[in-house]
Amino acid sequence: MAGEQRTTIEYYDVLGAVGGRGWDPHGDTLDWVRFCLKAHHLQAQRVRRRLSEAGEIW
Q: Which domain of life is it from (predicted)?
């Protein structure tokens, strides 16, 4: 659960830093893109690990 809480906090931190007080079409969204790519990568690793563990059990 600690990892999920940390990700949630990081999500809001990055969203606040990128979004500021409102949406700006010219704003720098690089931190948001990095956060999303990192989150997707971590999720893919978790799924791969779970599939591997399930394969070992079966």
A: Bacteria
**Contact by Cβ (8 Å): 11, 35:** yes
7 has pLDDT over 70: yes
CB 25, CB 34: distance < 8 Å: no
DSSP string, 1-58: -HHHHHHHHHHHHHHHHHHTTS--TTS--HHHHHHHHHHHHHHHHHHHHHHHHHHHH-
Q: What is the pTM of this model?
A: 0.74
Delimit the domains of the chain by residue range. Answer: 31-58
